[in-house]
Amino acid sequence: MNINEIAELAGVSRATVSRYLNNGYISEEKRAAVKKVIDETGFVPSSHAQTLRTKKTKLIGVILPKINSESISRMVAGISGVLSEQGYNLLLANTENDEKKELEFLQLFQDNRVDGIILIGTIFTGEHKKLLKSLRVPVVIAGQHLEGYSSVYHDDEAAAEAVTELMIRAGGQHFGMIGATLRDEAVGRKRRAGFLNSLEKAGITVEESALKEAKFNSESGYKMARQLMENHPETDSLFCATDTIAVGAIEYLRETGKKIPDDIQIIGFGDSKIARVLTPRLTTVHLAYKTSGEESARMILELLAGKNTADREMKLGYRIVEGESLR
Amino acid sequence: MNINEIAELAGVSRATVSRYLNNGYISEEKRAAVKKVIDETGFVPSSHAQTLRTKKTKLIGVILPKINSESISRMVAGISGVLSEQGYNLLLANTENDEKKELEFLQLFQDNRVDGIILIGTIFTGEHKKLLKSLRVPVVIAGQHLEGYSSVYHDDEAAAEAVTELMIRAGGQHFGMIGATLRDEAVGRKRRAGFLNSLEKAGITVEESALKEAKFNSESGYKMARQLMENHPETDSLFCATDTIAVGAIEYLRETGKKIPDDIQIIGFGDSKIARVLTPRLTTVHLAYKTSGEESARMILELLAGKNTADREMKLGYRIVEGESLR
C-alpha cells in the first residue's frame, strides 16, 4: 500500500494524501475520506519517505570502536540517557577499531539517515579530517580532542602523571609500560606522555625498549608483558594503558611466579569491573565516561538547536581508585 | 547540489541524471556530460534518495538487549563477519533490556531503513508477536526460540542439566539457584528447568525459597546471594544463571568468609573473561555465541535471497569449562 493507492481509494489527489500525512491544510471532507481509507487499510506511512520531506529523523548516530567495553558502554549510557529524554533514538555503528569503517559510517549516517553524529573517536587520519569537514550534519567528538570540533574528552595526561607518581612514591625504581598505539591521541600518546613526565620529574630514566605497545585486548597485554619481562626482568613497576591490557599482563606475571605488588606493582586505566574482581584488586584510574557521554549528548542537542555555533571543548577530570596492586 | 542542479549544469533532463546514477541506459554523449559535471562538482548522490529508488540499503539492523556483554559482542562479531563479506553494514540498536525499545526499533528499522533485521531476543510479549508478524522485512531471531520464526538458539536446558549433574556428583546436597526472569525463555526458564530436572533425577529436593531471581548484573547477584544465604545458610551448591550474577554472588560469599569450593561450590553460564580471572576460576558453560551470530547472518542472507522461505530453527550445543569452583 503506498500513497498513490491511498489517493485512488479515497478519490483524492496524491498531493492531498501527502498534505494529510504532513498535517498540511486540506478540506474537512477530503480529510475524512483519507482518514477512512487509512484506518481501513492499516496503512503506515514510510518514515523514510517522511524523512525526505521533513528532514528530521529524531535519530542520532553513534560511531564507536568496540561494543564489548565498559568505558564505551558507560559513554553510550550517558548519551542515551540525555537524548532519549528529548525523544531521540540512537543508532550505533561498531567499527571494531577499523578506521575505514569509521569513514564508511560517517558517510552512511550523514546521508540524511540521522540528525547528528557522535563519534567516539580513536584515530584521526587526514581522510577523517576531510570527511568531517564535509559533513552536512552536526558532529560531536567524544573521548578525543580534535582542533576545530566540538569535543568532550578526558585529562589522560594528568591522570597518567598522577598514577605514575603513586608508583614512584611507593618506591618503584625500574619502570616499564605497556601502552597503546601512538596514533590514538588520548589512550596512546597522552597516557604515555604523562607517564614519562612523572618519571622525568623524579629523575628516573626508562629505556625505549621498556615501552611496549599492545592492542586493546588482554591477549596482547599478556604477550607484551612477556616481551617486557624477558628484556627487562628487573622491572618492578608496570604502567598499563588500560585495565584490559593489565589483565593480560597480570596473567603472565602470575604464571611466571611474580608476586603482585611485592615483586612488581602494576596499574591500569578504566576502573572496570574486572579490575575490582582481580586478586589482588587492581589500582586503576576512573575517567568519567558516563559524564562524557552526557556532555556529548548535550552538545549535539545545542548544535541541533542552532545554538552555540562556536566549537566547544570540554576536558573532564579523573579519580584514582586504589586497589591492592601498589606497594 | 542536487539532481536538478546536476541536470541543469549538464544540459540534460533530471531523469537522465537519475538513470546515470542507477546505471540505467543513457547515450554515450549524455553520460559524458553528466560525468563531467559530477566530477567537477564533487556531487555525492544521497544514498537515502537512492534507497527510495532501489529499495536496497545493504544494511542489516541488529536489535540487542545490552552492549556491554561478552555474549552479545561475540554474537555481533559472528554476524558482522559473515555479513561484511557480502558487503553489508550493521546498524545496532541497544534496548538496555527495555521491551518497549525493542518494539520501537523493530518499527523504526522496518520503515525501509534496513534490508533485514536480526533480533537478539529476550522476552516475547503479545505485542512483539503482533509486530513481528506485520514486518515487511525478513527477520531472524538469535538466542531465543520463537515458534514460526527463523531462529538460532542454544540448548540451555541440556547445558543446565549437565552442570547441575557435575555439582551433584561432586557431593552437593543443599542446592540453591540465582536465576533470571522466567519471562526470558532461554536464560530464565530453560536454565531453571535443566537445574530442576537434574535435581529431580537425583532425588534431591529444593525449596521454592532457595530459587532466587536476579537482574542481569552483579549487584543484583550480590543481593540475591545474601537473601539466599540468609534464608538457607546450609546451601553448599549454588547455580547462577549467568557469570555476571555469579561474580556478585562470589563477592558476597567472600565477604561473609565462605570458602569456594570447600564451603560452597558455584557455577556460572557464559564462559566470560571475568570467569577466568576470578580466584578460584569459575566453572562455567560455554555457549557458541559467535557461531550463533554467524548462523543468524547466514539465515538472513538466505531470506534476502528469497531462498528457504520455510522457517528454519537451529539449536546449538554447549561445552562445560572446568574452573576451580566445584569440589
TrEMBL record, chains A, B:
Which superkingdom heads the taxonomic lineage of this protein's source? Bacteria
**PANTHER family documented for this protein:** HTH-TYPE TRANSCRIPTIONAL REGULATOR GALS, LACI-RELATED TRANSCRIPTIONAL REPRESSOR
> Which CDD domains would you find in this protein's record?
HTH_LacI, PBP1_TreR-like
What is the protein name stated in its UniProt record?
A: Transcriptional regulator, LacI family
Name of one Pfam family that matches: Peripla_BP_3
Q: Which SMART domains does its entry note? A: HTH_LACI (SM00354)
UniProt xrefs under InterPro entries: HTH_LacI, LacI/GalR-like_sensor, Lambda_DNA-bd_dom_sf, Peripla_BP_I
